[in-house]
Design a protein that fits this description.
heterodimer; A: 214 residues; mainly alpha; 3-stranded mixed sheet; two-stranded antiparallel ribbon; 11 helices; 8 strands; globular; B: 241 residues; 3-stranded antiparallel sheet; 50% helix; elongated; binds zinc ion; Znf_C2H2_jaz (chain B); zinc (chain B); C2H2-type domain-containing protein (chain B)
Amino acid sequence: MSRTIAPDAKAMLDTRGLYDGPTIHSMNPLLLMEKIIRERIIDSMYWKEQAWGLNAATLLDRAVDLQYIGGQYANQKPTAFICLVLKMLQLNPEREILLEYLQDEDFKYLRALAAFYIRLAWPAAEVYKTLEPLMADYRKLRLRTQAGFKLTFVDEFIDDLLTKERVCDIALPRMPTRAQLEDMDELEPRESLVSDVEEDSDEEVGEEGEVGED
Amino acid sequence: MSKPKGVYDNAATGDTSFRRTWDRDEYAHKAAERQAQEAKERKERYEAKVAGKKYLPKLDANINVKEFDDSKMVEARRDRIRLDENLNKVQIVPFGSTGGRRGKGAGYYCEACDLNFTNSLEYVEHLNSKQHLQATGQTDIVERATLEMVRERLQWLKQRKRDQNRAEQFDLAKRLAERRNIEEEERIERKERKRVKKEEKRREKLKANTNSVNLDDTQDRDATTMARMMGFEGFGSTKQR
Ligand SMILES: [Zn+2]
């Protein structure tokens, strides 16, 4: 891997069809985000001012300052959170670095950021194995949407990442369900305490209907 | 060579920013400081190199982010670019000064390139441009972070958070204690005033009822009231100041 990186996403996007950099899901990582939101991010002040010139270490300075998760807010303004997700797609941080972000206990928005990136970039079985343990993190998160602020929780956010198609206004890569991966022997059935609690509450949720659904 | 920090010093100043008013002495002083700092870093970097180690800026919980300067490579901005300085201010626009033009004008001025920008986005784009980076002795190459660099940065941020929390808690505890002291004092004063008033009332009543009371008794009562007012009595029930 190269010792240096570009300060922004220009070179990585201006490939004239000849992209030969690192790939995620066999594609240019930046293309994992739809064009329209990607362009809004790149045109945003946050991207130009705050995300410019970051590497995986200095990105932490921004991540620990995050006040909320979310995709777009107000008049389709991209959140700092989603800008940093795109930045991470540009940086393509190593596995160990992402785990360092994810496992830190002090900064919950850093954890949310790493979880989101891992959901976008890692193979399905790895996503389940890495993110499921975070279902035991019940800390509050603020979610900013076009309609305003909402309260959510780390475990709820992780659950969304594992079960929904769109989170934070981003279409997530298609992923087999946990049951399908178990059938394909790519995943061991869950046996943790968390999984028991999950199964119990699943039944109850069925009656109440999809509360958190849009 | 100027440091990336120079980038942030270029924000347009007050509403008379089209007049060149910078203080030469201060500029010289700043330049000297910067040179001393750079020399120190060069020395440290050289020593690290001689020792066969990678140069890492000193990690110290007490230093602020500004003092992180590990290479001539582009780094993340350490401060917010001051873009709101001229917001909501009526500005005198010199004739012919529009965005991206030579010379100072209203809006954002880049000293290094002698260019003026009317909007903040254009100004930041300029700061990111090869032209500007070249003019300020920077490159647009960013060093890729290693796991060690990430760990170090994270530890530093965690320490900073702990220090901030501790400072806040200390501050809060101090303020609460002060508040409690004030309230306690007020409470005691209120109590004393009440007691004195009650005593006076009782005394007047007594006076009215028994005009022929013996002198010693009155003196006794006076003494008791005095003692109470001075706080000699009731040490057991009220807190000492
Ligand atoms: Zn310039």
